[in-house]
Amino acid sequence: MTYREHTKEVKIGNRVIGGGNPILIQSMTNTRTQDVEATVAQILRLEEAGCDIIRCTCPDEESARAIGEIRRRIHIPLVADIHFNYRMAIEAIRSGADKVRINPGNIGGEDKLAKVVAEAKEHGVPIRVGVNSGSLEREMIAKYGGVTAQGLVDSALDKVRMIENCGYDRIVISIKSSDVLMCIEAHELLAKQTDYPLHVGITEAGTLWSGNIKSSIGLGVILHAGIGDTIRVSLSGDPVEEVRTAKLLLRTLGLRRGGIEVVSCPTCGRTRIDLIGLADRVEAMVESYPALDIKVAVMGCAVNGPGEAREADIGIAGGDGEGILIKKGQIVKKFPEEQLLAVLKDELDHWNE
C-alpha cells in the first residue's frame, strides 16, 4: 500500500501536499530570522538549489514580525518554527507565515493552544505537529520503559487530538528520532493510524558525511514504503547540502524526475586520469542544467568505460592522454584528454538540439 496516495491534501502557501501530490523538499534557515537580509539571501540560495518549503525559527517577537518581510521577498512557502511561547505562533501567523510548526505539549497549556488554533483557522494556516524523541513526555517514557517508536506515535496522535478538539484539521504530522531504526518503526506505525500528511526526517543526523548516510538509509526505507509527503535531510552544515541530498534521494527512489544524474566508476589500477577530480567537476557543472533529465557517466578507463557507461545517456572517459565521448555505450568521438570537461559541456549545452 502506498500510504502517501491516501493522505489528506493540505495547502501550504502556493503548494499542496498529501493525496499523492509530489513529495516536497524542506530545509531550515540557520541565520537569525530577525536579520531579514541574511535570511532572504539564504532562502534564495536554497530556492535555486531546489528547496520547495523553508522553515525559520521564531524565538522572539522580532523574529516573528520579520516573517512578513521575508515572505514578501521569497517564492516558496514559509513555515514558522515555534517553541514554548504561543504568542510567537500568533504573531507569525498574523505576519504571513504559510504554516506553523508547534509542539502542542509545550506551547503553554490547552487554553494557549486554543488561541493558536483559532488564529490558524482564521487565516487558513496549517499546523505541523512536531514530536521528537528528545522531547518525548515523561509519561510516555514511563509507560513504555524508555523512548520508543510506539511512544512517539502515541504522543503525536495525542497532540493531533488536542488540535482536532479545537475544531481544526489542517494538520501535518512530524515524528523524528536520531535513532534510524526507531524512526523507521515509528513511521510504519503512524502511517497505519492516520491519514494526515507526514513530514519525514532523521533528526540530529549529524555531519555532511554521517548525516547523509543515516538520512539516506532511514528516509530511503520510509519513502520506499510509500510513507512521507514532505522530507528534510537534517545536516550539521550548509542547508543547501540538505536540499542537494534530498533531491538525489528522491530521484534515486524514482519519486522525482529532472536534473542530471552523475554516475562514475571507482578508481582502480587502470585509472590514468584524475577521475576523482573530474567527477567532482562534472557533478558541480551539471547543476547548471536543471531542465535536463539524463544520466551522465564519468569513467576512468577508455578500455572498459564504454561498456560500463552503457546505461547512461552520455559519458566521458580518458587515459594516457586521450579522451573519448560515449553515447549509449558507443564511442562517438576521440579528442585530447584535457578537453574532457569542455567536450561534455558542449554536448550538454546543445542536448535538446
Number of strands: 15
- Span of the ends, CA to CA: 41 Å
Largest sheet: 8 strands, parallel, barrel
> What count of helical segments does DSSP give?
12
Q: What structural class is derived from the secondary structure elements? A: alpha/beta
Give the C-alpha Rg. 23 Å
CATH fold descriptor of the largest domain: TIM Barrel
State the helical fraction: 25-40%
Placed side by side, the strands forming the largest sheet appear as 3-4-5-6-7-8-9-10
Shape: elongated
Poorly predicted ranges: none
What is the CATH architecture descriptor of the largest domain? Alpha-Beta Barrel
Name of the CATH class of the largest domain: Alpha Beta
**Number of domains as seen in the coordinates:** 2
Strand content: 15-25%
Mean pLDDT: 91
Spell out the CATH superfamily of the largest domain: Dihydropteroate synthase-like
The assembly state of the depicted protein chains is single chain
- Listing every helix as H and every strand as E from the N terminus to the C terminus, the arrangement reads EEEHEHEHEHEHHEHEHEHEHEHEEEH
What does this structure look like?
The chain has 353 residues and is an alpha/beta fold. It has two domains: 250 residues, TIM Barrel (Alpha-Beta Barrel); 89 residues, 2-Layer Sandwich (Sulfite Reductase Hemoprotein, domain 1), CATH 3.30.413. It contains twelve helices and 15 strands. Strands 3-4-5-6-7-8-9-10 form an eight-stranded parallel β-barrel, surrounded by five helices. Helix 3 packs parallel to helix 4, helix 5 crosses helix 6 and helix 8 packs parallel to helix 9. The chain is elongated, with a radius of gyration of 23 Å. The mean pLDDT is 91.
